Amino acid sequence: MTTNAERVGPPLPSKRLVVGRAAWWIAKPRARPPAQHTLMAAIREEESATRKLSFADALKDFLQNLSFHCYGKLVEHGRGIQERFFWLICHIAALTILIAFVWGTYKDATDELVTTLYDPLYAVSKVPLPAVTVCSQNRISKRAVWRYAQELSDKDPKLRNATYFYGELRAFSMYYGIDDIVDYERVLRLQSFLDQFDTGPQDVFFNSKNRLHTLTPQCSDILVSCRLGGRPFDCMQEFRETISSLGFCCTFNFNGSFSEKRPFYQRFYGVDMGLILTLRAAAEDMFFNPHNNYPDPQSGGVTIRYVHTGRSTYLPVRPRIFETLPEARRIRPDVRKCRFWDEIPRNFTRRYTFSKCISACRARSIYNLCECLPFQLPMHYIGDAAGRVFCTLQHLECLNQYKFKWLNVITSRDYMPGLEHEMEDALYCPDCQPSCSEILYNVRGAGALALHNPSRNMTNVRSSISPGNNSYGHDSSELAVVRIYFAETHIQYFRQIIKNDWYEIFSTIGNICGIIAGFSLIGICELLFFVAKQLWHAYKAERKSELWHTRDHTPRRSRARTRANGRVKATQQQQRQPMELLILP
Questions:
Q1: Distance separating alpha carbons of residues 303 and 297, to the nearest angstrom
Q2: Contact 551, 132 (CB under 8 A)
Q3: Gyration radius (Cα) of the chain, Å
Q4: Considering the entire predicted model, what is its pTM?
Q5: Which spans does this entry mark as compositional bias, Basic residues (predicted)?
Q6: Which ranges of 433-485 does DSSP label H, i.e. alpha helix?
Q7: How many whole angstroms separate alpha carbon 410 and alpha carbon 347?
C-alpha cells in the first residue's frame, strides 16, 4: 500500500509572481520607489558595471586591430621575445626613415617657386624699349664755373677776383668722388663762405643740388641728333633731364612712352632701326677729368657703357623676360624670395624695384650716419623733405669714412668663413628682395668703329640752336655716334610658377608614408580615436575619484555637526530648567 505522502509525490517548487516594470503593474506609478541601496553602493555597482580595460590591455587590443602594417606582430600571442624585438627594430627603423623623407619633402616644398621656359620665341616687338640715360663725362662745365666764380667775386666783401674763386671751386670735384684735394681747412673755409653768401631765399644752408645742377652741362650741349626706327625726332622733346648716381643726366623713355606694344615693322631690330644718337663732348669745356672713374651702378639694375669720341659705338641689347604668376602673392615674400611691384608703395614713385630699394636703404643709412643726403639721391627716399639738407663739402669727410659700408650691400646674413668683418661692416637691407617680374636688358657683343663721315649723322632736327651751342663742323674728335638696338628678333620668356600646391604636397607625403610604414588615412583616424578615447577615460576616472572623495566625507561631517548641535541644545535646555532642591530632615 502506498501512503498519502507517496501518492502526493515530491514537493513542487513554489512559484513566485514576477511583477513587470510596466506602468500598469505598479500600484502607484508616480510614487518614487524606496531606495534599497545606499548611494555609495550604487556608485560602486555603476563603476563595476562600467569598468573598462586597463591601458596595457587597451593598447594590446589596439595594436592587434590597427590597420597599419605588422604592428600586431609586437603583441601577437605565441611570439617569442627575440621575434618581438626584431619587429620593434624594424618599426623604429621604418619610422626614422619616414621622418627623414617627410622632412626632406617639407624642406623642398619651402622653395615654392620654380622657373620654367614659357615661350622660347617671344617676339621682340612686344618687348618695351629700355630707358637710355646719357651722361657727359665732363660733370662740370668750365663756362658755367667761370660764370659762378664771377658771381661769388661780386658777393665777396673782401673783393677777391673771379680767378681766385675759379681755383677754389675745383673742390667741387669731391662731389663726384675725386678726392685730389688734401687741404680740408681750405675746403671748409670755402664752404663757410658759400653758406653765408650763396644761399637762396628759402634755404638756410648752401643748396648743393641746385648749384651743381647749374654747373652740369645741359642736354642741349650734349645731344646733336636723334633717330628711332629710321625716323628722326626732336631730342629736346623726348629726352628729359633726370638725376642718377652720376649726377644730372639726360634720359630717353623715362616715363615709358615707348613701352607699349608696337607693330612688327617697328620692332627696333637691327643696327639702323634702333636708337641712333649723335653726341658731342667739347674738350674746351671740360673743367676736370675723372681719370679714375669707372662704371659703378652700385644698386644693380643698370648697365653702364662708356662711349669714346671719334667712334661709332654699337650696343646690341638682348632682353629676357621673367614673370611671376599672380597666384604667388599668397606666399610670403621671404618664402618666395621676391616682391611684386606694388607690395611696398612707400618711398617709391611708381613701382617697386630692387635697385630703388637698395638706393632707399643706402639713403637712410647715409642720413642717419652723416645727417645729410647726397644730391644724387631723391629726397623722398628718407621721408618728409622738411628740414632735410643735402650734403656739402663739410660732410664729405663723413661720407668718405663710411664709403666701404655703402658700396657693400647684403640682404641676408649668411655665414661665410673669412668674411665675418666684411659682413659686419656691410650695409644690411633685409627688406630688399629681387623683383618678381622684370625685364633684363643685357648688352653683349658691344663694338666700336672709327667715325669717318660724321656729317650725315648730324641731322639736327631742332628748329633753333641755343646760344651756348656752337656749330659742330666736321671735327669727328668731338662727336660720337651710339647705336642701341635689339640684337634678336625673338627672345626667351621665363615664368615663375608655384612648384607644389597643397594637394601635391599632401599626395607626396601620403605616398611616402604608405610605402615605408604602411600608413593610411584610416589608420591615422584609428590612432587619433584611440588617443582621444584614453584621454576621455582618464578624465572620467579623475572626475569620479573627486566625486567619491567629496561624497565620502560629506555625511561624516554632517553627522558630527548634528551630534555637536544636539549636545549644545541639550546643554541649553538644562540651563533653562528650574533647579529642584531636595531637603532632608
A1: 7
A2: no
A3: 47
A4: 0.67
A5: 556-566
A6: none
A7: 20
Q: Is 419 left (phi over 0), alpha (psi -120 to 50) or beta?
A: alpha
Distance CA 445, CA 485 (A): 12
- Distance, in Å, from the CA atom of 47 to the CA atom of 41, rounded to the nearest integer, reads 10
Q: What CA–CA distances, in Å, run from 257 to 68, 131, 235, 302, 389? A: 66, 10, 14, 19, 33
As a whole number of angstroms, the distance between CA 112 and CA 332 comes to 10
Contact (Cβ atoms closer than 8 angstroms) between residue 390 and residue 372 = yes
- In total, the chain counts a number of residues equal to 585
What does DSSP say about strands 427-428 and 231-232: parallel, antiparallel, or unpaired? unpaired
- pLDDT tens digit string along 59-102? 777 776 776 767 777 777 777 788 878 888 887 888 888 888 77
- For residues 523 and 94, give the distance between their C-alpha atoms in angstroms, rounded to a whole number: 16
Q: Which three cell numbers stand for residue 173?
A: 670735384
C-alpha–C-alpha distance, residues 558 and 85, integer Å:
58
505-533 core/surface letters (b: 16 or more CB in 10 A; e: else): eeebbeebbeebbebeeebeebeeebeee
Exposed e or buried b for every residue in 339-353, given b needs 16+ CB within 10 A?
Answer: bbeeebeebbeeebb
Residue 405's CB is within 10 A of a number of other CB atoms, namely 17
* Calpha distance 484→227 (Å, rounded): 10
* DSSP result, 479-512: EEEEEEEES-SEEEEEEEEES--HHHHHHHHHHH
- Rounded to 10 deg, the angle between the 184-197 and 142-155 helix axes is 70
- The CB density around residue 248, as the number of other CB atoms within 10 Å, is 22
- Per DSSP (E only), the strands in 311-446 are 311-324, 409-410, 427-428, 438-443
Q: Are the beta carbons of 253 and 132 closer than 8 angstroms?
A: yes
Q: What is the pLDDT of residues 176-205, one digit of tens each?
A: 877 666 678 888 999 999 999 988 777 778
Query: For residue 133, which of 266, 9, 295 has the smallest C-alpha distance?
Result: 295
Q: Give the whole-angstrom CA distance, residue 305 versus residue 483.
A: 12
Q: CA-to-CA distance for 217 and 99, rounded, in angstroms?
A: 68
Tell me the DSSP string of 522-563.
HHHHHHHHHHHHHHHHHHHHHHHHHHHHHHHHHHHHHHHHHH
**427-477 per-position pLDDT tens digit:** 999 888 899 999 999 888 777 787 765 444 444 444 433 333 334 454 667
Alpha-carbon distance of 358 to 5, in angstroms, equals 123
Q: For residue 418, which phi and psi values (nearest 5 degrees)?
A: 90, -10
Among residues 142, 206, 196, which one has the least CA distance to residue 169? 142
Instruction: Please name every residue paired with 465 in a beta bridge, in sequence order, or none if there are none.
Output: none
pLDDT at 322 over 80: yes
End-to-end CA distance of the chain: 89
Q: CB–CB of 153/160 below 8 Å?
A: yes
Tell me the H-state helices in 371-517: 396-401, 403-407, 420-425, 502-516
| Residues 412, 426 contacting (CB under 8 angstroms) | no
Contact 438, 300 (CB under 8 A): no
